[in-house]
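sorry for the late reply, my laptop died twice this morning and i had to redo everyting from scratch. anyway the thing you sent over, i finally got around to it. pasting the sequence first so we're on the same page, its 149 residues, then the predicted structure underneath. double check i copied it right bc i was rushing
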Amino acid sequence: MNQEIKILVINGPNLNMLGKREPEVYGSRTLDEINDGLNKFSKDINVNLEFYQSNHEGEILDFMHSKNSDVDGCVINAGALTHSSTALHDAIKSVKFPCVEVHMSNIYSRPEIWRQKSLIAPAVIGTVQGFGETSYKSAIELLALSIRS
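ok and here's the structure:
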C-alpha cells in the first residue's frame, strides 16, 4: 500500500456559505458535508486531510506558512481571492509543498469577466474546475498521484 501522505484542503472567502449561497452554481451541500465526504474518500487512497477555511486573506497566508514543513501538498479553493490576490500567489510560490487550484464552477464560463482570470494559476501545479464538489476529489487524487510519483 502507498505511504500515507498529508494534504491541506484550504477554502477561502465565502465558502463557509456553501449550501446557502447560489446553490444553482455551487450545489446544496454545506462545506462541512463536503469535507466529511472528502475525509471518507481520502481514506481509500491513504491520504490524511487537514481542512481550513477563512474569510481573511492574511489568515490563509499565515496558515499556509505555518504548515510549510508539516504537509506533502495542498488543494486550495481560494474563492474570490483567486481573482485578486497576488499575496496568495506569492504564498503558494513560497511554500515547499505543491498546490492544486480547485473550483466547483468553471471560472472560464462564468458571466463576470473578472471571474475568468486566476492570479494563482501560474503558482500551482494544476487546476481542477467545473465538476462541483467532485472537483475536490479529483484534485486530491491527482495531487496524491503527483506526490507519490
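DSSP finds five helices and five strands in the chain.
thats about all i looked at so far, will dig more tmrw
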